[in-house]
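Hi P.,

Sorry for the delay on this. The queue was packed all week, but I finally got your sequence through. Input first:
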Amino acid sequence: MLFLDHLHTHCSRLAHKTAIEFVAPDSAETHMVTYRQLEEAIQRTMTLLQSYGVEAGDRVALQLPKCLPFLYLHLAIMRLGAISLPLNPGYPPHELHYFLEDAAAKLFVADSANRSAIDPLQPTLAELQHILYLDPFSDQFDALIAGRPATNARLPANPATIALMIYTSGTTGRPKGATLTHGNITANLNSLHTAWGWQEQDVLLHVLPIFHVHGLIVALHGALNAGATAVLLPKFDGDDVIDRLISGKYSVFMGVPTMHRRLLDVAQGRDVDFGRMRLMTSGSDRLPDDVFQAYQDRFGYTLLERYGMSETGMLISNPLHGERRVGSVGLPLPGVSVRIVDPEMEQQLPDGTVGAVQVKGDNVCPGYWRKPEKSAEAFTPDGWLRTGDMGVRAPDGYYTLKGRAKDLIITGGYNVYPPEVELVLADHPAVTASAVVGCPDREWGETVAACVVLQPNSRITEDELIAYCRERLVHYKAPRRVVFMSDFPRNALGKVQKAELRRLLTADA
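Then the structure:
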């Protein structure tokens, strides 16, 4: 049974149970949505989408903050057999244009607060037929769907139909749309349901953004798939989260290392016991050993670290029952195969040898949107996905990641590929060359740093160049530091040695 069918069953069987509690931003107001109300909202939203001409296979882009209209739209899009395209609310027009054009989105739903910046995009996008502006925290959306007839259409029944497109940064600097099918999403949710012991009685404290796989599929869909309750906070606030976690109301919490470190900081001097929490996970970046140990020492809880990707959902996890090993991402999930291979020959390596991580399973996406060459490059001839990560397998089956290929930067749980930032810097008239690297940071894991060579006689300050990038990139991709250099360290072939740049910048810091 596909996820949407499972959810439809819950909406009937658990009609009066709370599915979603949404805590409105900047207020104490909480909106309660039962499973029956969720089903009614999805059906009326489907009718709204159909009035805009949305049909099976169409792409509908959503750039909204974390809100109930986003959830209704996302689920309704998938129920219609169309493709949901969540976008980071922080993307500026420069980046938005690329996503909308590449996906050939038919409908774009956006925050009305951004209308003046978004309106000029529409004439330049041939496939974009409509833009629907919403005030996400008002009654506007409820009014839009209130008078519409409900439709019980339940497409698609085919697991191979694309349900969701998540853009993941490309090593060439152009993001690629990972096409997750209904079958991919269902397979991953089923694996996690088994591995993490999801229960109808669970209450998830949801603090993650919902425009990527971690917050949307693993956390929110995971709760709905189990018939559990999800309490959605609009943003992460350490003090508020600590108070909620010790209240006894919640059983599941998912965060990133930056959040867990923040909880340790704000809990200083307080008596905190997470003994009532059934499941607390960490992902999207490596969990530092000191945070892992501090959670045990101060909170009496051992965090469960896991590993996943936009293209696959979750792949590997430390066990719910059993050893949660410091530094390790754990064991392959049910239905997922993992192997470590020689990066060049792609022959499987013995345990204890570091190599390239490759995966296979029903959770793995079929490829990238309208990029057959990139899709072909991502898979081996025998069907294994090349994750781009390096890792090692212990004799007892536990996996440990040993580094990220192609210089990926992870800052606060978000992925940043240097070429994306370098392309923006290259457009500045004062810049002749740039190299972007990640530097260690206690709070964020890594921060983005740009090494820049200026054109002769050009003058620009570090603050000016950072501001230039922030106008053109979502906030976490913009450099926090710019270092001006006469040239970069290079090898005999002239290739920039980013490892040496990282070493220089770390030593300087």
